[in-house]
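Hi V.,

You were right to ask for the full record rather than a summary. Here it is.
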Amino acid sequence: MAASAWRTYNSAKKYLQTADIDLNAGTLRLGLYKANSNCSTYTLTTFSQLTGACSAGLITQIKTPPTITVSTGSSAKAIQLSAGALIFSASAASAFSVQNAVIFISGGKIICSCALSTAGFSVTAGNTLTITMNTNGVWELSGGTA
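Predicted structure:
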């Protein structure tokens, strides 16, 4: 299944400029959300505003670093948000209607989201869901002349 591109929340762009989101000091997390979630509303600002978290049937809904990292991008003038593969395991029960992923920072500020599929899908009990990130990273911030 093909995922959409990661989209950055409007507030995250502002918070990166004002240092309210510190990608080096904060713990980045990834959560899974159902098809009926509001995570594609890009005017949201905090984790607590998100609806439709996939918690039933998943051993772990949130993954933490070292799998999500901030590194130098395609040039010395670029910073890239990248991650290794993230694996979610279903427990004794299945997880239904999984469709979206959201990256946020500990403390509650949301950064970006991605539609993992065009429709909700299930992770049946005893199985795993592996999210493999783009080799070019989730996103890259570049520009400037220095």
